[in-house]
Amino acid sequence: MHPSAAPNTREFPTAESLSFYCARPAAGALAQLCTALDAAFDACADAPDPSLHAAFARAVRAALAEAAADPALLTDEQREASTACYRRHLLAADPLGRYAIAALVWMPGQASPVHAHHTWCGYALIDGTLTETRYEWQADSDCAAPVREQSREPGAVSFTRAGRTCIHRLANGSDKAAVSLHIYGVAGEQIGTHVNDIVRIADTVRAVAA
């Protein structure tokens, strides 16, 4: 993060959060995901920040891919959408506060704000299609400018570290609902306040490469 850029911890108003979770699932795909994340942390137990290690990032991506491919991962309630905004279902929270797992449900036309992250995070697409627009931080003008767009299909997986080196926006530009699985490096109760770093967009928007 650029030293002159004050982080924005305000949650975007068009995100609706619902909590259907237990701190430690007893069985099933969600429990397996938690076990894989615990193992990733254990493998980097001596590191002050595990997210800086390539092995940790690989382990999180692999765990996301496996969980997202399991059709039994989510219940019908955890796939419920909102007509007003995209909806976030909190699925599980690590008792040690190291991570929180959520499912995000996107109706057509719904999108996230343009944001960086205060913490490491990763996501995988379960159903539908999302468009991810990437931005670069322009320190001289204290804003972000778009650089490229990418279509995200089921099975797509992403991992990023904290900071403004990875700024993006997710949007559902299709005519069908989309569902994505997200892991954030925060405690469950911080998921709405300590994840997204909302950034200002450049006034002059240049062409975005597909």
From TrEMBL:
InterPro entries with a match to the protein in the record: CDO_1, RmlC-like_jellyroll, RmlC_Cupin_sf
Cross-link for 3'-(S-cysteinyl)-tyrosine (Cys-Tyr), residue positions: 121-184
Cleaved signal peptide residues: none
GO BP annotations listed: L-cysteine catabolic process
Source taxon at top rank: Bacteria
One of the record's GO molecular function terms: cysteine dioxygenase activity
UniProt KW Oxidoreductase keyword: yes
Residues the record lists as binding Fe cation: 115, 117, 168
Keyword Zinc: no
Keywords of this entry: Dioxygenase, Iron, Metal-binding, Oxidoreductase, Thioether bond
Family, similarity comment: Belongs to the cysteine dioxygenase family.
Protein name: Cysteine dioxygenase type I
